[in-house]
Write a structure and sequence with these properties.
With about 400 residues, the protein is of the alpha+beta class. It has 2 domains: about 170 residues, no CATH class; about 130 residues, no CATH class.
């Protein structure tokens, strides 16, 4: 189709054409960045933790009076939990992903405290059975041996504690020792004695997942057993068992497991609920951004329909003349679709420039990553399709006008 007549017609309607181009450009710029932000949030929400999330429940207690020696009670609690029907295993940890705590420590590769830290990593401490309870998978090495565990209380009172071993996640291993195995290597977290890396897990999520900071990718596990006072019981539920029922029974078991010591439940949730609560704001943001995208697309579609309908009315004589000269319905239909395609293309080009500008502004103001170029053609395809769908009905009405009726209408 010859586009010269289309361009000639658009020159006579510069204001209307300019407004629809501006509307398409604005929609393109905002939708491209909104889709990118939505994709980021979705990736964050569904990022794997490496844990058996569906089978985990969380339980923690506080005592109403100070307990000078909490370790015996802690061990009795673990024994009691493992006797609860539906419990596969239980362990105690200082923190867990999506929880309220976030402990991090600097990691050095030399004993010299004056040297700069190589990384900052999420610092997990846990008692025996943590890996199996959480469902973490070792890709290298082994789990901790019984003789490697240290009580948290003795660690706190020792100015130069000795913790012989550590397990780190794969990302941390690659960061500290690129291109080589981390097994047997030494890192320094506690005191002047090294912690030898005895295992590497595929994935151990940060206590605060989803952070843009690179250090949030690195985590390590130390064989330091906390007590019930400062730790959280992680309980793995048997397949087929009701996690909430097991959690309730576990809480009742622990409350009745400390004669002479009054305790209250501080935290009692399934791991899945903890995760859902953690990402509540992200889900709200996705809904908001999706609503903005849908709203802009609907407004743009109505703008295209309105403008096309107006132009059909204004060009009734032109349509009738072309039909009288032998133009087919398909040619009239393609005329309006081509016109819309030209306007959409100009608007999309301007929108892509605007989208990149908004991305730079977001990078500068909120430290967000740059908009990937793939979102620009994605936004273009969406708006091209939207334009063609929106203009189809008015264009079809124009193509259906009989020549005589169109000429009389003029």
């Amino acid at each position: 189709m010859d586009i010269l007549p289309i361009l000639s017609t658009l020159k006579r309607h510069k204001t209307a054409a300019g407004l629809i181009v501006l509307q398409i450009a604005l929609t393109c710029a905002i939708v491209c960045n909104a889709l990118f932000l939505i994709a980021q949030r979705i990736e964050r929400i569904y990022a794997p933790t490496g844990m058996a999330e569906d089978a985990l429940v969380v339980l923690s207690l506080s005592s109403m009076a100070r307990v000078e020696n909490p370790e015996p009670q802690t061990q009795a609690d673990l024994v009691a939990l493992r006797q609860v029907p539906g419990v596969v295993s239980a362990s105690l940890t200082n923190q867990y992903p999506f929880g309220r705590n976030s402990n991090n420590s600097s990691v050095r590769l030399t004993a010299d405290r004056n040297t700069s830290s190589r990384v900052v990593a999420g610092h997990y401490t846990a008692g025996p059975g943590f890996l199996s309870t959480m469902g973490l998978r070792l890709v290298e090495g082994r789990d901790f041996q019984p003789e490697e565990f240290v009580l948290g209380s003795t660690l706190d009172t020792n100015p130069d504690p000795r913790v012989p071993a550590t397990i780190i996640n794969k990302r941390m291993a690659e960061r500290l020792f690129p291109g080589e195995s981390a097994l047997g290597k030494a890192i320094y977290v506690y005191g002047n004695e090294p912690q030898r890396i005895v295992g590497v897990v595929e994935n151990l999520a940060s206590p605060s997942p989803g952070s843009q900071d690179e250090n949030a990718l690195h985590t390590m596990l130390m064989p330091v057993q906390p007590s019930f006072r400062g730790g959280t019981f992680m309980i793995r539920v048997a397949p087929g068992a009701n996690p909430e029922a097991v959690l309730k029974a576990a809480g009742e078991k622990l409350l009745g497991n400390s004669p002479g010591l009054r305790r209250v439940i501080r935290e009692q949730e399934t791991f899945i609920k903890q995760r859902n609560d953690y990402y509540r704001q992200d889900r709200s943001m996705i809904q908001l951004l999706a609503g903005v995208c849908i709203g802009l697309l609907v407004v743009t579609a109505f703008g295209i329909v309105g403008l096309a309908s107006f132009w059909v009315q204004q060009r009734t004589r032109m349509i009738g003349t072309r039909r009288a000269l032998g133009a087919t319905r398909g040619q009239i239909l393609r005329y309006f679709q081509t016109e819309n395609l030209l306007l959409s293309t100009v608007g999309i080009v301007l929108g892509m420039i605007g989208a990149y500008g908004i991305s730079l502004l977001l990078m500068r103001s909120y430290e967000l990553p740059r908009l990937p170029l793939v979102y620009l053609p994605l936004g273009a395809v969406v708006l091209w399709a939207l334009g063609q769908i929106a203009v189809f009905a008015p264009a079809r009405r124009a193509a259906a006008l009989p020549p005589v009726a169109a000429l009389r209408g003029g």
